[in-house]
Every structure is written in C-alpha cells, then in structure tokens.
Amino acid sequence: MALPLQPLSPLDGRYRAAVSGLGEFLSEAGLNRARVHVEVEWLIYLTDHEFFGTERMTEDQVRELRRFASSFGQAEIDELAVLEATTKHDVKAVEYLVRNRLAALGLTEIAELTHFACTSEDVNNLSYAITIREAVTEVWMPALRRVVAELRAAAYSYRDDAMLARTHGQPATPTTMGKELAVFVYRLERLEKQVSQGEYLAKFSGATGTFAAHLAADNTKDWPRISEEFVTSLGLTWNPLTTQIESHDWQAELYSRVAHVNRVLHNLCTDVWTYISLGYFTQIPVVGATGSSTMPHKINPIKFENAEANLELSSALLDSLSQTLVTSRLQRDLTDSSTQRNIGVALGHSLLALDNIVAGLGQISLNRKLLDDDLDDNWEVLGEAIQTVVRAEITAGRSSIVDPYALLKELTRGKKIGQADLVDFVTGLDIGDEAKARLVQLSPSTYTGLAGGLVDYLG
C-alpha cells in the first residue's frame, strides 16, 4: 500500500515550522504574488502617465487593484492553477489572472496594457528581486542577528573567564572564552553589513533588452528613463544593460556572502562542539529529551551538529546558484528558471541552522572550574612569556643569556611542569630582579594579555 502524499524535502516536512517564514516569499505562491504585484504596478504606472490616451484610474480603482495584489491568497492560487493548465506558461497565467480581475472591476478598457511590452523575464526578474530581498531582510537577517546577539552577550559575560587556548589542538597561550566568542561576533557583524548593503538589481527592457517593442508602440517616449523610474519605484536598482534576462550578478554576490556567513557559523559550531567535548561548556539537560537510545547518561550536542549539516547543504546549494546563474547562453536560456526555484531551499537550510544555533547556545553553560583546572595543569604555556622577557632583558643589557628560546624549549617542549618548577627556573635566570618578580607572579590564569579588554572592540 502506497503512503499518502509526502513532502520530499525535510524543509517541507520535519523542519517546516522552523523555515515557514521563507515560504511567505520564496515559494511558488510567493513568487506569483510578486508577479501580480509587478503587473498591477505597471498598469497603474501606465495609466497614471496616461499612455496611449488612457485616463488615470480613480483612487478607488487603484486601491482595489492594489488590494487584489496584496491579498493574493488561496483563491488566486487555485485560479492560477486552472489558467496554467491551459496556458502551460506560468507568467502568461498571471497575465490572464490580472485581466480577469480588471474585468471584474469594470476596467476592460485598459486590459491590453496588462503585461504591456513585457517579456516574461521583465516580470520574473523584478518578482525574484522583490521576494529575495524580502526573504533576506525580513526572515534570514533577523535570524542571523539573533545568533549574533546571543554570541555578543556571551562574549561580554565570559570576557574575563581565562581558558587554555589550543593552537593545533595543543595547549597554547591562554585566552578568555569571551574574547574567542567575540572573534566570531566581529566576523559575523562584518559579513552581516556586507549582506545588508547588497544591491537588488532588475531590468525592464523587453525581449532582448533593447526596448524594441516599446519604440514600435511609441518612439517619442524616453523608454530607458521610464524603465528606470518604474524599477526604482519598486525599491530596486535599475540595470540598463542586459539581454532578455537580468544578468543575476547581484544574486551571485548575495549567495556568495550568505555562503561565507554559513562557513563562519560552521566554524563556530565546530568550536563550540569541541569546547563541549573538552568539558569547557556543560550542556543543560532538556526535560524529557533522550541523548542516546541505549546510553541514558548522554546529552549530545545535536543542535550544533544539526546546524553543521544544514550549513553545509546550504553552502553547497548557494555555491551552485552563484556559479550557474551568471551564465546564460547568448540572449537567453532557461537554466536560470529551474535554478532559481531552489533559492528558498538554499536559504531554508541556512535558516534552520541559525535556529539550531540559537537553541544550542541557550542549552550550554560555562564550566569555570574545569577551565581553571585545565590552566593549572599546563604551566608550561608560560614558556613563551619567560623567553620573551629574557629577550627584552638581553636587549636592555641586563642579561648575558644566549638563545633564550632554545633554553625554554629544552625546559618545556613535550613536558609537564608545575608552578614550583617554573619558579625555580626563573629564580636562577640571569635577568634583572624586577623582571624576575613579574615572571614569578605570572600564572596560566593571569597570562591572558588584553583578551578581556579586546571584547570592547565590538563596540
């Protein structure tokens, strides 16, 4: 017996609730709503400027047309499905839907201005630019900002919590947990700014970008100026030089930046996962949750693991979009049409990852005791401080030591030494008393430099 009809993508099944906000814009229905919006606004523009002897619509007529576009819902979705079953063309079906509404409003005299001088891509590229802009600014960016806000708060909260750094996975000069999280905040806020400043380009110039049909209809008008005025009225940036399609370079730029954000977030997830593995972060049990089907003690860092997987999927799709959308054979081929239908999927996996990261960050707590214990077990990391001070003493003429780096390498490399060992070593060094006093006072937990203060560079 066959299963009832099931969603193929987990974004439309298991994780639907987490990504449903994107469906408002990047679904087929969201795209068609934008197409209706563009067709309606073009009609209003043409009649407002009394093209071809038309009269301006009344305020009530304009309001009703715009209400039709903004209230696009299930009835219009169903009507479009019927129309497209006949037209076999999605944009033509939208045109007929608008014509039907004009007839219902008693505006048949302007019906021939519907889709006037437009190729399908004139409507499509505007619609995609609008829906992508809204999806990014209204859904994806707020989710990213929630992650950054959580990280920023944690960076300040943990700014002075010293911990052993691990370069190449090995004990290294101590830092603070706050400073390490601040690094991610700084990276993400910089990228967020780049995404927010991106342009959303659009064209409105006919079948091959030449305004040929426009001039055939009326060669007295400044059609490029009209095109620019209409495109910018929709809050988009006008592209004057295109083929039948807008060249999609802005999309490639956007997706590359979002993929870059994904990869920084992936780095965050692997680091937090590792801190959890080391015990630096403890996980707060979720009531009723199961970590393992056979090992009842386990609390698995699944939020960060889930985020990693979705960030990888998102970046793979965004990379593909960036690479393929910038190529179109001669004046037009249809590959971009199929490719662009996956924009929502690409952003959906990123949005799901953001949701998991926020949840994961809310389920961990800093284990300060373990951080302190780890530091106290690795006094050899002070070898850097000692040899650097000795170098300064040699330069100042207060020491005759030769090759202080080699001296400390012999003492510490691959060895575990304690506080007493280092105090004895420093006491016997040929350096000034003031330098000795400073070094004797050092401990791994105080050897964090300016780490805590560096968090303030976040502003």
What can you see in these coordinates?
The chain contains 19 helices and six strands. It has a two-stranded antiparallel ribbon. A two-stranded parallel ribbon has the order 3-4. The chain has a two-stranded antiparallel sheet with strand order 5-6. Helix 4 packs across helix 5 (90-104). The radius of gyration is 31 Å and the shape is elongated. The protein has three domains: 10-118, Fumarase C, Chain B, domain 1; 121-368, Fumarase/aspartase (Central domain) (Fumarase C, Chain A, domain 2), CATH 1.20.200.10; 379-443, Ribonucleotide Reductase Protein R1, domain 1, CATH 1.10.40.30. It starts with 15 loop residues before the first helix and ends in a 5-residue tail after the last helix. By secondary structure, it is mostly helical.
What is the fold's blueprint, element by element?
Layout: H1 16-26, H2 28-48, H3 59-70, H4 74-87, H5 90-104, H6 120-157, E1 162-167, E2 170-176, H7 177-196, E3 201-202, H8 212-217, H9 223-233, E4 237-238, H10 249-278, E5 281-283, H11 302-324, H12 335-340, H13 343-361, E6 364-366, H14 368-376, H15 383-395, H16 404-412, H17 419-427, H18 433-441, H19 451-454
Parallel strand pairs: 3-4
Antiparallel strand pairs: 1-2, 5-6
Helix pairs in contact: 1-2, 1-6, 1-13, 2-3, 2-5, 2-6, 4-5, 6-7, 6-13, 7-10, 10-11, 10-13, 11-13, 15-16
Features:
459 residues; mainly alpha; Fumarase C, Chain B, domain 1; Fumarase C, Chain A, domain 2; Ribonucleotide Reductase Protein R1, domain 1; 3 domains; two-stranded antiparallel ribbon; two-stranded parallel ribbon
